[in-house]
Each structure stands twice: as C-alpha cells, then as structure tokens.
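Lab notebook, bench 4. The sequencing result for the construct came back, and we need a structural model before the next group meeting so we can plan mutations. Quick request posted to the team channel:

Model the 3D structure of this chain.
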Amino acid sequence: MNQDRTPGTLRRQPVQKRSAERFRRLLDACAELLDEVGYAALTTKEVARRAEVSIGTLYQFFSDQEGLIGALATRNLEAFLERVAVRLERENPQDVPGVVEAAVEEYVAMRRTVPGFGVVDFGAVGRDHTLDPALDNNTAVAGRLRSLTASLSGVRDDAELEIAVRVALECADGVLRLAFRADPQGDPQLIAECKRVLNSYLGDRIRSLGAGREAH
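Done. Here's the predicted structure in token form:
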C-alpha cells in the first residue's frame, strides 16, 4: 500500500470516458487555481472542490499534490510538443532559425494563454523532478526535444547532441523566465534575444556535430 502512495506519482491512468473526463477536470481546476492562488497555497481539497469531484476521486488518480502537479506538467509538455510538431509540419523550416522560431513562439503563446502555465510549465520552481523521479525537469524535456532536433537537422542522436540540447534549453529557460518576469506578456526584446542566443549556439553546435559525422 505504501508503494502506491509514493510522493509525486500518478496512481493510475483513466481508461473509461467518465474517468478521463474527471481526470481532465482535475487538471483544469489545478491549472486555474495555480493562476489564482499560486503554488504554495494550492490544496488538493480545493482542486477537488473546483473540479466538482470528491477528494477520494482525486486520490484515485494521484498519490498526492506533487503527483497532480506532475500530471499537469506532463500534459503541458505533450501539448507543447504537439504544437511545435504541427507548426513545423506546416512551415517545413530548412534551418535552425526556423525551428527555433517555432519552438520559442509556441512556448510564448502557451505562456500567454494556457491557464497555470506561468506557474507550472514543464515543472514547478523549486521542484526539480516534476516530470520524472529520476531526472530533473530540463533533462526530461531535453530528452524529448533531442530526437526532434536530430530528425530535423540530420545529425546523430547521441550524447553530444543531448548535451547541446540541454545547454540550449537551460539558456532558453533562463532568458524566457526573465522575459516574463519583466513583462506579464513577455518582453519582446528579451524573447528576441532568446532566439538570437539559441540560433547562434545551436547553429554552431549542429554544424560541428554534422562535420564530425562526415569526418567519420
């Protein structure tokens, strides 16, 4: 029984339509309350009340509040990756700047419009293992972006690319946090600087990785 209540875990995935609807309502309620009261004041009791389900139903899905936050962060990440994939398919960029533009702009759009995203995007501040108990949040996100970067750039999906994507993500995370700290809608100049940093760094690293592959 104790294993079932491991902090930060999802106890079970919804299968039936009714369960899936309750699960969605709980995540929606959590996101709304994060905007209203913040992370520190969030309670599972209030999330359940807002979602119009019993607290017992909430704990059928989530081991605790961290499990709830982890599920919301996971949903946000999946939505972001889907938005980027759709945009890339539509625009079919042929270079790093096109990919960077799509990724940064979709993140900015979600930050501006998705409830709770400014508090919990792909993780919560001060909670380093929201997405995966074994990985810090940015490492988990980088792992998902690495294969996308490899497929678009033609470079090998290996440890060197993993480091490059991780560094790029850390840079983007820092600059975009600054952009939204300075302006609730995101400071346009800082957003542009984020793109500039990513284009310069990733462009150089991908050229280097591509050249190394050709040499072998």
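Confidence is low (pLDDT under 50) at residues 1-7.
Will bring this to the meeting.
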